[in-house]
Specification:
Keywords: DNA damage, DNA repair. This is DNA-3-methyladenine glycosylase 2 family protein. InterPro entries: Alkylbase_DNA_Glycosylase/TA, DNA_glycosylase. It comes from Streptomyces fuscus. The protein has 341 residues and is an alpha+beta fold. It has a single domain, classed as Endonuclease III, domain 1, CATH 1.10.340.30. It is built from 15 helices and ten strands. Helix 5 runs antiparallel to helix 9.
Length: 341
């Protein structure tokens, strides 16, 4: 799926109502959609950039198609929209459908890491330097959307990833809406059927208690989501704040702590320094990679990442991509399924 391309000079173009958008050509496409062609500066790897937005292989809002394109279904401030991005030589071709199409196309550069500053990163450990050298196309995505990362992050609190992915998949398919546009399944490349846009805040708030139960979501996580959707507009405003301020606003909601807020701003803001603390595995992985300490806790992890101040999330991602992880032990997180009780 991933591809790379080299720098290309950019220029400003004016078409389709996008005035002064760098390196873009905007036009219509089949099915009532819109299209934009964008030439980024520097190498780009679609899989690395957009991979963190995928919530499991069956995520109904995300598809990696057989032709190398990536599809996303999002709920934008302008309404639902579907975005397809693909590498074609040295450019990105983006197509979008639905009421949110223009909003999505305008933010393609940010989504693909144009706001990121990878040159500010300086490796301080050999394992990090090797991972950085081998993946020049890594950029930190910036979606500009808070709730679409907040809700699945809450679902991932204190459970296995499989349980969280299942809950997200079931709830979005049942209470979301069909994504606009043709979708990857139209050409037979969709492995999991039709795509869906996640529910709006009002619909999340109306999901009955027994449906949360059937999806395997306990009352604590469901209640946290309900508290968040009641103030969804205020939480979405956090996208205009600095990452630390955005995290503080999110954490005002009971049930949203540093782990969840960091997971959100890493995606919504492209926050290069937002470290995920409180994670079950990350401290041990960072400790093992940088100091041979597989039993490291958050304090040790933060100490080891201190040389990367301002870029600690990027350093942690590179460590995860390095493959230098401690051997597996017996699982410490018990797996349960309250939906089958």
């Amino acid at each position: 799926m991933a591809g790379r391309f080299s720098p290309r000079p950019t220029r400003t173009s004016v078409r389709g109502g996008h005035v002064g958008v760098p390196a873009a050509r905007v036009s219509g496409v089949a099915g009532g959609g819109r299209e934009r062609v964008w030439a980024p500066e520097g190498p780009l790897d679609l899989g690395l950039v957009l991979g963190p937005l995928r919530r499991g292989p069956g995520d109904p809002t995300f598809r990696a198609a057989a032709d190398g394109s990536v599809w996303r279904a999002s709920r934008t401030p302008c309404g639902p929209g579907t975005l397809r991005v693909a590498l074609e030589g040295s450019v990105v071709r983006a197509q979008a459908w639905g009421p949110g199409a223009e909003w999505l196309l305008e933010r393609v550069p940010s989504l693909l890491g144009a706001d990121d500053e990878p040159d500010a990163f300086v490796p301080r450990h050999r394992v990090v330097a090797l991972a950085w050298h081998r993946r020049p196309g890594l950029r930190l995505t910036r979606t500009g959307l808070v709730m679409e990362s907040l809700i699945p992050s809450i679902l991932e609190q204190k459970v296995t990833t499989d349980e969280a992915y299942r809950a997200w998949r079931l709830l979005v398919r049942k209470f979301g809406e069909a994504a606009p546009g043709p979708g990857p399944g139209a050409s037979g490349s969709g492995a999991f059927g039709r795509m869906f846009v996640m529910p709006d805040a009002r619909t999340w708030g109306l999901i009955p208690s027994w449906e949360w139960h059937r999806a395997g979501v306990d009352n604590k996580r469901a209640s946290t989501i309900l508290r968040c959707v009641r103030v969804a507009a205020r939480l979405e405003e956090a996208v205009f704040m600095a990452p630390a301020e955005a995290q503080a606003r999110l954490e005002v909601v009971s049930g949203v702590g540093p782990w969840t807020s960091a997971e959100v701003v890493q995606r919504s803001h492209g926050a290069a320094d937002a470290v995920t603390v409180g994670d079950l595995h990350l401290p041990g992985i960072v400790g093992f990679a940088l100091a041979g300490d597989r039993d490291a806790d958050d304090a040790v992890m933060l100490s080891l990442l201190e040389p990367y101040a301002g870029q600690r999330h990027r350093a942690a991602r590179l460590i995860l991509l390095s493959g230098r992880v401690p051997g597996r032990r017996a699982p410490r997180m018990p797996r349960g399924d309250i939906g089958r009780l």
